[in-house]
Structure formats: C-alpha cells, structure tokens
Design goal:
The chain is α/β, with parallel strands linked by helices and 310 residues long. The protein is 45% helix and 15% strand.
Length: 310
C-alpha cells in the first residue's frame, strides 16, 4: 500500500478522538483502597499551571470549578503576575505550592539563585505557600555541592515553618534511584516530592529490581507528582488506556504505601496531578497534536485519588 501522509493524519486524529470520548470506567481504573483515615490525615490535591493556556486568573477559576484544593506553579518573578495570582487565590479560596529552582551550570552560582528564589517565594506578602517543591542541584554536581542545597533547605524550612521538598527529577541531584541513595542515607532531614516516573524512565524499568531504594524514598515522601511513567519515557499517553494498566498499577502501588504511612501517622499529604503537555504528552506525527487532553487527564487523576484515598 502506498504511504499516504494525509490518510495517516486523518486516521490518527480519528483514533485520538475516540480515545477522548471513551468513558474512563472502560479502561480498567484501579479499584479504591479500603484503609480508613487516621485522625489528622488530610489530602491536598493541586492543579498544575504547566501546560494551561490562559491567564493565572482563568487557571485558578478552572481549578476551583473542577474540584482542586489548590494550585502548584513556578514562583512568578514578575510583580504583576504575583499580584494577579494572589488576587485569584483569595477570590477562589485556593492554597498554593511553588516550584523553586536555579538553572546555572555552576554549583555556587545556582545555589545563590536557589536561595534568593526560595526566600522570595516563602516571604511573599500575598499568601503563605503550603509547601515549596524544589529542583535542586544537578546530576553532574559533586555530592558535596549538592548537599549544600539539602543543608540550606532543612535549616530554612525549620526557620520559616514552610515545608520544602526535593523532587526526584531527571537532570537534578535525585535523578535516579541509585544516585539518590547516598543523599537519603546521609541526610535524614531530606524530604521528598516523589515523582517516580523519572526514575522509571532513567532505569528503563518499573523499578522491580530496586525495592529497597523505592521503600527508602517512600518513607521520606511528603508530596507526590502523580504522573505515570514507563520504561521508555516519563509519561504514558493516557492513564485510562488499557495498554498502560501495568504502569498505572505499579505507580498506584507505590502511592498506596505513601498514603498508608501518612494515614498511620495522621499527617498531611499533598499531591499534584502532573500529566504534562507536549513534549511530555505524546503527539500525533506531522501535527504535533497531543494524543489526549492534558487537563481532562489531570482531573481524572484527581477524581481517582479522591475515590481511592478519601
């Protein structure tokens, strides 16, 4: 058969549309857990600004309307953006978590940026954050240089009362499971944002051969990014699709254990639904159109978490 790019695009778009319209309950969603909440346990679910096409005000309005408790976004450095954000948070009664980071290739320079951004986000006069999620260090920095980020955040969190969590993220100090072990073992105050999809991607597996490291990370987790990764990438196409069931089940098994610990302790857990836009989201060739609707998937994950854990 002669290759026809036009037919390929039409067929791909039709398949994608069918996927959008398929009821989620046909995709074998994970069954809710049965554990009862301990006194003091709370679950705070956040919406991602990443990938949203609209203003901060429109974003906050939609997050509230769709049932989120709060929002997470990169700390805005522009005063005008801060003003709009704080007004929207107040209007729609939403909590907020910030992503803070430095991107310099020099460790000392990045640490200085890191400290400044954290200080600005924590000490803002608009609304105290529920937490700060940080992208800290780099995968090529020395252990000693990366440890300076950990030491600063532990001390600064104790000083300000704002929780600070280091994300398990590619290109950063906690980019892979084995690389994270010395930081976790030697820094008992290190608390995590567990985005385990990155570790799956780096290890080219669902981490079946690294249970001890996964267990250690789970014991340190206070915040979760509930994106589902797989052996060949940090994000599956759609968590409702049956071909991704094994990856979805693996991630929920990890998240189940985090939730069980928090319920036993009677402590708060926060979670960001973080399925992202292209190029995290796979796209249809020749069109760059995403194979699924990012916002709909994130709302689906939010609802699934509420059913399973609340």
């Amino acid at each position: 058969m002669t290759y026809n790019r036009r037919n390929f695009i039409v067929q791909s778009a039709t398949a994608a549309t069918a996927l959008f319209l398929t009821p989620p309950n046909l995709f074998g969603a994970v069954k809710p857990g049965t554990e009862k909440s301990s006194k003091g346990f709370t679950l705070e679910i956040m919406a991602p600004y990443w990938g949203f096409n609209g203003s901060l005000t429109e974003f906050c309005k939609k997050a509230k309307a769709d049932g989120y408790d709060g929002v997470e976004l990169l700390w805005p450095s522009a005063v005008a953006e801060q003003k709009e954000l704080f007004e929207a948070l107040k209007k729609y009664q939403l909590s907020v978590g910030y992503l803070c980071r430095g991107d310099e290739k020099n460790a000392a320079a990045q640490l200085e940026t890191f400290k400044k951004v954290l200080s600005d986000a924590v000490n803002n006069l608009g609304q105290k954050p529920s937490y700060i999620n940080v992208h800290s260090g780099r995968d090529f920095f020395s252990y000693a240089d990366n440890k300076k980020f950990i030491d600063f955040t532990i001390a600064y969190s104790a000083k300000t009362g704002v929780p600070i969590y280091h994300e398990t993220h590619r290109s950063r100090m906690l980019y892979a499971a084995p690389a994270s072990v010395p930081y976790l073992e030697n820094n008992p105050g290190l608390r995590l944002t567990l985005d385990i999809s990155h570790w799956c991607n780096v290890s080219e597996s669902l981490l079946e051969d690294q249970p001890e490291t996964v267990n250690l990370a789970i014991s340190r987790t206070d915040h979760i990014h509930s994106r589902v990764g797989h052996a060949e990438g940090p994000q599956i196409g759609d968590p409702r699709a049956p071909e991704w069931k094994s990856a979805v089940d693996a991630h929920f098994a990890w998240w189940d254990r985090v939730v069980a610990i928090k319920k036993e302790q009677g402590k708060k857990l926060s979670m960001l639904t973080e399925f992202g836009p292209p190029s995290y989201m796979p796209t249809i060739p020749f069109t760059n159109q995403p194979v699924a609707n990012q916002w709909e998937i994130n709302v689906y994950m939010m609802q699934l978490w509420r059913t399973r854990y609340q």
